[in-house]
């Protein structure tokens, strides 16, 4: 497994992240973590809301410093307490302290804001997070399932005020769900943010898993295209789906969960699968995606002679 930098930091993170939500039993969790580490993986992702997962990881991670351990906060700890959820300072501190106890550690490498809280000013969240970084309880920050404009505003606030910025975003992304290509993915590329992509296999819909139940006509069509490409290349459908997500952008890191260790090696092997352009075209023909009328208008305007005259823009240079 190869490594990339986490956003605009010096932290080295594996090309594939291990999602720990499904790790509920210590012995199997230990086998999964070992298989992932043996393959070169070093990022394990959980959340305050995944109570059993955090507790199990705390039990099995005996070589704590070997891993980049990530958790999240925001989701409610108690539905009867109005302050037990949200991205405000009170919930942040209480959630992190509980996560640290479960994980049996005094710090986490990455703390993600689990989802957008429109009721808490982003400045409050950023300042509270920065305080925890300065206190040594958190090393780096990320934000999950949040609009691009909120992340961009947070990035500017952090830069202006000398606070710790977000280094990554965590969002759903798959052949069946390409919405981040409208704004989140371009934003991440421009700001130098890592994208942790969850749902890359669309919960088994792209691999024909029986866990999906009754797949929709669209799911069946796209899954058939994935199988066809897999047969052409002599790989598995899961490897094709993962390889496609990485082919779209160099900042994407698939976030994959395992219930058992026997699937780890095969899944990690997807990192060595390179899809030919024709295969990418076949997959995207089965799962068409339109950025939308406004995105089309903006892109046309950016290349319009009405903006630049008769000059041709080459990279960041203007050529007459």
List keywords for this structure.
two-stranded antiparallel sheet, 320 residues, TIM Barrel, 8-stranded parallel β-barrel, alpha/beta, 12 helices
Record the SSE blueprint.
Layout: E1 3-5, E2 12-14, E3 17-19, H1 26-38, E4 43-45, H2 51-60, E5 68-73, H3 89-103, E6 108-113, H4 122-134, E7 138-144, H5 148-161, E8 166-172, H6 184-191, E9 194-198, H7 217-233, H8 237-248, E10 252-257, H9 264-268, H10 277-286, H11 293-302, H12 305-308, E11 312-314, E12 317-319
Parallel strand pairs: 3-4, 3-10, 4-5, 5-6, 6-7, 7-8, 8-9, 9-10
Antiparallel strand pairs: 1-2, 11-12
Helix pairs in contact: 1-2, 2-3, 4-5, 7-8, 7-10
Pfam families: Aldo_ket_red
Organism: Amycolatopsis methanolica 239
InterPro entries: AKR (IPR020471), AKR_Detox_Biosynth (IPR050523), NAD(P)_OxRdtase_dom_sf (IPR036812), NADP_OxRdtase_dom (IPR023210)
Characterize the structure shown.
It comes from Amycolatopsis methanolica 239. This is Aryl-alcohol dehydrogenase. One of its GO terms (cellular component) is cytosol. This protein is α/β, with parallel strands linked by helices and 320 residues long. It has two domains: 3-289, TIM Barrel (Alpha-Beta Barrel), CATH 3.20.20; 295-320, no CATH class. It is 41% helix and 17% strand. The protein contains twelve helices and twelve strands. The strands form three sheets. Strands 3-4-5-6-7-8-9-10 form an eight-stranded parallel barrel, surrounded by five helices. Helix 5 (148-161) links the parallel strand 7 and strand 8. The longest helix has 17 residues, at 217-233. The model has no long low-confidence stretch (mean pLDDT 93).
